[in-house]
């Protein structure tokens, strides 16, 4: 479900400034609010359903990391 650039951004790339996950990571802890994950994925051009988002976040607390969402 995640594009490769989202999972492994190029550290030297200016793309990191616009990485949607980092935009939604307001605390800088590598996690986003569970209720913002759908917006984050959609900003990447993905179209997850609410059911898919619910499945991705079913074991998360208030915030979720990319690694948690990938499981």
Percent of residues in helical segments? Answer: 40-55%
Largest sheet: 2 strands, antiparallel
Mean pLDDT rating: 76
According to CATH, what is the topology? Recoverin, domain 1
Coarse morphology: globular
Count of individual beta strands: 2
Q: Please list the strands of the largest sheet in the order they lie side by side.
A: 1-2
- Going by helix content, strand content and strand pairing, the class is mainly alpha
Reading the helices and strands in chain order gives HHEHHEH
Number of helices: 5
CATH class: Mainly Alpha
Can you tell me the CATH superfamily?
EF-hand
Structure summary:
The protein is mainly alpha-helical. The chain contains five helices and two strands, in the order ααβααβα.
Structure write-up:
This protein has 71 residues and is mostly helical. It has a single domain, classed as EF-hand (Recoverin, domain 1, Orthogonal Bundle). It is built from 5 helices and 2 strands; from the N terminus they run ααβααβα. The chain has helices at 4-7, 20-24, 37-43, 50-57, 66-70; strands at 31-33, 63-65. A two-stranded antiparallel sheet has the order 1-2. The longest helix has 8 residues, at 50-57. It starts with a helix and ends with a helix. The model is unreliable at 12-18 (pLDDT under 50). One of its GO terms (molecular function) is calcium ion binding. InterPro entries: EF-hand-dom_pair, EF_hand_dom.
């Amino acid at each position: 479900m995640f594009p490769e650039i989202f999972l492994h951004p190029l550290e030297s790339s200016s793309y990191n400034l616009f990485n949607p996950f980092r935009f939604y990571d307001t605390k800088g802890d590598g996690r986003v609010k569970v209720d913002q994950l759908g917006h984050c994925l959609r900003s990447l051009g993905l179209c997850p359903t609410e059911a898919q988002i619910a499945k991705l976040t079913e074991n998360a607390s208030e915030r979720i990391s990319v690694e948690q969402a990938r499981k």
